[in-house]
Amino acid sequence: MRIVLITGISGSGKSVALNVLEDTGFYCVDNLPPALLAQLVTQLTDEGTQALAVAVDARSSQSLASLPGVVSDLRVQGHDVKIMFLTANTHSLVARFSETRRSHPLSHELKPGHNPAARRTLIECILEERERLSTIEQLGHVIDTSELSANKLRAWVKDLVQSENAPLTVFFESFAFKLGVPLDADFVFDVRAIPNPYYDLSLRPLNGRDAPVIAFLDAQPSADEMFKDIRDFITKWLPSFKGDNRSYLTVAIGCTGGQHRSVYMAERLAKHFHQSERVVLRHREQS
């Protein structure tokens, strides 16, 4: 059976991701205690279900510690198990809870000591949840949704699901340093040393996918040198990640505004590695 476990920080988009998988044909279960996962898989396998998506959150804290062992057992049984971990920075999470006026799932738990007045604040809930899920985060592919709209998250989840059959998927993601480094990046490369098309008024409204910007940057020796350095680094270390049984590798390329240089470099790298690898291209600051 193909199994996708969706976990992560409350408010980071787990419901959005689960809905995407349901729309693509997965049998979906929300907030399942990890201790019940093996039993559910057995039952659905007997019924002929081929794809299962399960959302797990920090409310199942008593059985979260068992999740790595359960996942390992399912893989030994021949199931294809992938873990998708969604996160976001604290500022974004606070804003989302404020907008929706919903309480954090852990806010109903009492602090140690069981004083009825000692309930956690929102910030305390977020910190506690990060702590509980810290070991699970290391098991799967992390998606930072801090700067993502719901529509962009849906598209990224679809890309991720479509890449599941590849031994290793390389994600190239452009971003703006002024909006923060992606939390899901395995490698971060800074291309702000390359001449900036932004200062050419004719190029400013364009982006790194437009022909005039590409021509401008292709003509810069530093852009070509930067491309070759990043290309050679990734080429050298990709076999090691494959040998470590990694399923995903996220390479983030940043510039100031995430419009010109980072987009150009991510596009160029993706085009090069697409010849030999499973590649997914993402532009965080592009609509």
UniProtKB/TrEMBL annotation:
The name this protein goes by in its record: RNase adapter RapZ
Alphabetized UniProt keyword annotations: ATP-binding, GTP-binding, Nucleotide-binding
UniProt keyword ATP-binding present: yes
Organism: Pseudoduganella ginsengisoli
Presence of the UniProt keyword Membrane in the record: no
HAMAP family on file: RapZ_like
Domain RapZ C-terminal: 169-286
Entry binding sites for ATP: G8, I9, S10, G11, S12, G13, K14, S15
Alphabetical list of InterPro entries matching this protein: P-loop_NTPase, RapZ-like, RapZ-like_N, RapZ_C
All copies of domain RapZ-like N-terminal, residue ranges: 1-161
Molecular-function annotations in GO: ATP binding; GTP binding
Binding site for GTP: D57, A58, R59, S60
Classification via SUPFAM superfamilies: P-loop containing nucleoside triphosphate hydrolases
